Amino acid sequence: MIIRGGIVYDPSNGIFGEEMDLFIDRGKMVEEARGEEIDASGLLVMPGGVDAHAHIAGKKVNTGRIMRPDDSRLGTEPRNGVCRPSTGYTVPNCYAMGYRYARMGYTTAFEAATPILEARHTHEELQEIPIIDKGALTLFGNNWQVMECVRDKDLSKLAAYVAWGLRSARGYGVKIVNPGGGESWGFGTNVKSVNDPVPNFDVTPAEIIRGLAQANELLHLPHSIHLHFNNLGKPGNYTTAIETLDLLKDIKPSRMRQVVHVAHMQFSAYGGTGWRDFESKAPVIADYFNSHNHATMDMGQLLFGSATTMTADAPLEYGNARLTHNKWSNHDIELEESSGVVPMIYSRKMLVNAVQWAVGLELALLVDDPWKVLMTTDHPNGSPFVNYPEVVTLLMSKPKRDAEMASMHEQLQKRTGLGEIQRELDWADIAIMTRAAPARILGLPDKGHLGPGADADITIYNLKPEELDTSQDHSLVKKAISTAMYTIKGGVVVSKDGKILCTPPGRAFWVDAAVPQADTDRLMPDLQEKFAKYYSIQLSNYAVQDAYLPHANVIRAGLSIEPLQEVA
Amino acid sequence: MRSIVIAPRNVFCISVEAENISPDRFAPLKIEEIKKLIVWQGNRQKILSDLFTVDGEDSPSKAEDMAIRLSGDFSNVKRIGEGMTSGAIEVQGSAGMHAGNHMSGGILSIAGNADDWLAREMLGGRVVVMGDAGNYVGAGYRGEKCGMRGGEIEVRGNAGAYLGEHLCGGSIRVGGNAGDFPGAANQGGTIFIGGSTYLPGAEMSKGTINVRGETKVLPSFQKMEIAQIDGTDYQKYLGDLLENGKGELFVGVAVP
Ligand SMILES: [Zn+2]
To answer: Which CATH code fits A45-500?
Structure first.
């Protein structure tokens, strides 16, 4: 296949808006090919979108669906052609997830939080999401075995457990959510700082985070630790964010990437002592990212309207439920995590919500290097992913931001500096924040770019970047990027002008990290004891079988693959 | 008034979804166009004239000047008058589930019985049922926090369970008895029940429920004074205290 004459943005290969032809052969980008031609003359062409943080599969997503039949009514589309029926808006059914990502030009999405114990369910749902490639991050931050290894300062056993956990969950990377807080929640409390001890374990969140970061680098994993901070969502929590990031400054990455990826930074960049003097501390956080190179973030942008909050941060969800008097699901995941789900309506008339809205945008606009900030909404916590075009246009257009702010609380100007920010992102920034950077941050060498050997995942938008003024014509931009003209996945046109043409199954990425047998041998008696004493299932039934990943793509990592490599 | 008569061509064993039977949808259309409106029977898409005869004045009109008469058995036809904003629908027999849901104006009258979910999440207008109504009259559909927000519903016969669940406004009047849990989670609407019922007002925070006949009151209601309404003595209660509720419940004092 040949795509002729597009204006190509491929930041990883230093291509920023050049008119060029693209060649595809057997699902990969190549130097030269023949076959079907697509005329993309003058149109915006990018690699397929990569979503590095969304909640798209697993038990908490399904709990959201069960709790919200009202939501399922919002997005119903009958079966049509190759499409099965769609339902839902904030918590769509599996099919709708695949169709909606593809229509928007996205070809890869990662589920951001799965306990090992519930990974089988996650993979069952991921498999049912058509078209897109996917993977799931595995939760380790409140895990008993992890905390015991950290307490005993046994890094090699911890690495062995992380490798074993990823293998059992068929997981892609190490997710940490409110470390220690989920375990404390089992006793009705929370940890209040990174130095607050976890009940019964004699460890602190700081020790858990550092231990897992060290194990992550020891194992040479493609992705860094992926961290949801303590005190997330609370006024004044920006100090916790900075304190936590400082903990990781001296850790050497084992690959060309960050040491920590911060999930949905927006929810952790707040000042104030309570909701009354709640304000943005995005500039402080942005300064930190501008002056340090070990961390990346995704925005976790909040948009007004319906959302469903879902997280392994169970005490946070308890707070949300009390605050909103809304429905609340609370869940204990044995020796691993806790979690919660609460539906939410964000209102532009509510000052707190308006400040949150501004914080996300401020972060993305104040961090100079777009490679450090991913465009996300923490779907469906800040807003459903179908609203990414709204976020992109807000970042690209100062007039749009001004118009939005004019309709909000007059106090907003005093609580955030968004109104003074002149910066408008361009297509290069957007291509980085939605394609190149998420692929690099996740450690997916064949994603997010269009160089030879890359997966032929391509988006062609019905928009002429050389003619359109993205600042003024933001509504045209939003319309064009909401529905890609062509979405090509693995060299196949899967969506054209919003119509799904075919639904190939996506692949599921997971990481198999090797560790010395001696470390595993030391680990197994611990696990056997835990399963015998505490788990509700047998050790032999625990791991996800390969039958649940019929289109698996295994990435090898680990201690015995290559020696540790220090990055200058 | 532009009057249109719709009648089923046969007895529907598989239920029909006909949200297009509404003054708003019919108003701008000629008869031939009305006949082509989409209806679903089970999982099959059809057009109105596949299942119904359509007769009446041909020239388009405003919705408020529309009078739609449904002649015959519509008890297996769902969503009649969905979202209607004005005009009138007269069902000469019984109506299927979800009749008048989301309506914000106009009149829906049903000579026979109405099935479950009558006028759920109604916003305004008037619904009258001469016979009985099923469960969840004026309620919020599954998962919804607010049911009916405005308008009036009158059921001359009996109503089923969960009458006016999650009511946020408007008024419902039932001539006969109501099933279990009327006015559950009431947040500001008014319910009058002429006959008896069981456990009214559970989790109500605001609004009024008036039960003329016998009922069992939840223990989480506070007994207040005797009040006189329209010449009848009622025992007044406040609740539901479990929700810090300020709702008012009046129960008729039986004449010895
Ligand atoms: Zn998240």
So the answer is: 3.20.20
